[in-house]
């Protein structure tokens, strides 16, 4: 599954699932553009270290995914791309009647609308080359729902619909578009929630993970960022050339119920 000679942009990729995808794409030989809304020394150091580790070109480009012009500028600054992984996302939990409008707008902008802008900017170049891979990081919540997450679930359902539409528009041009739907993934953000959940439920670490956090995930195991990244690499490979417009669940059986 060598991706040597390909350039991949991964949005929201200085930590978590985005970083996991970026690392696995680099491991497969792709040059990588990392991205987030910050512009810190450690962001650029992350790119330098990844380049040394995998022997590929890695750059960090700042772009705020809540702003459409910056989403499109990211693709332009990168010089186009062969692989686009739309991963950037945020979350907020609240009953819908109390949901802050500014939080709704931010989640829709970052989790959904940013993908519209990056795809619109990247797709013409992919069509011209006759090869391209678009991988949208959706969620189990792109296929099902939970209470108090109206904006996130609306956005992730939207990502699934956008994925299908882009796949149809790009069909026959050597370009595929698919969505990965993770369940609970052990990221630094999730890891940080475990101690608090232990206190709230008066449980030890393993019990709170199994009985509370992974209650809807039948495997009772977190997915890893490496597993999500490996799925992205597969979707970018020649083996997946006829897989387009679909969702791949990496959720330990969550959406099978």
UniProtKB/TrEMBL annotation:
GO terms of molecular function: 3-hydroxybutyrate dehydrogenase activity
Pfam family, one: adh_short_C2
Stated family: Belongs to the short-chain dehydrogenases/reductases (SDR) family.
Protein's UniProt name: 3-hydroxybutyrate dehydrogenase
Classification lineage: Bacteria, Pseudomonadati, Pseudomonadota, Alphaproteobacteria, Rhodobacterales
């Amino acid at each position: 599954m060598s991706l040597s000679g390909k350039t991949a942009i991964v949005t929201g990729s200085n930590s978590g699932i985005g970083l996991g995808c970026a690392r696995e794409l680099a491991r497969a030989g792709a040059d990588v553009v990392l991205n987030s809304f910050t512009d810190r020394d450690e962001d650029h150091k992350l790119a330098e270290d990844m380049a040394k580790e995998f022997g590929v070109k890695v750059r960090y480009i700042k772009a705020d995914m809540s702003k459409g012009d910056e989403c499109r500028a990211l693709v332009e600054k990168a010089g186009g791309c062969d692989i686009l992984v739309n991963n950037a996302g945020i979350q907020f939990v609240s009953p819908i009647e109390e949901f802050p409008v500014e939080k709704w707008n931010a989640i829709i902008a970052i989790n959904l609308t940013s993908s519209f802008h990056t795809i619109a900017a990247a797709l013409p170049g992919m069509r011209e080359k006759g090869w391209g891979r678009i991988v949208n990081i959706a969620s189990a919540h792109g296929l099902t729902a939970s209470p108090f997450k109206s904006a996130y679930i609306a956005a992730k359902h939207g990502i699934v619909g956008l994925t299908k539409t882009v796949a149809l528009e790009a069909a026959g041009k050597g370009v595929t578009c698919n969505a990965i739907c993770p369940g609970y993934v052990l990221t630094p953000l999730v890891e940080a929630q475990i101690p608090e959940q232990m206190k709230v439920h008066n449980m030890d670490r393993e019990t709170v993970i199994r009985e509370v956090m992974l209650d809807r995930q039948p495997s009772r195991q977190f997915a890893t960022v490496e597993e999500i990244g490996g799925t992205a690499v597969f979707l970018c490979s020649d083996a997946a050339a006829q897989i387009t417009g679909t969702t791949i669940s990496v959720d330990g059986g969550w959406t099978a119920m």
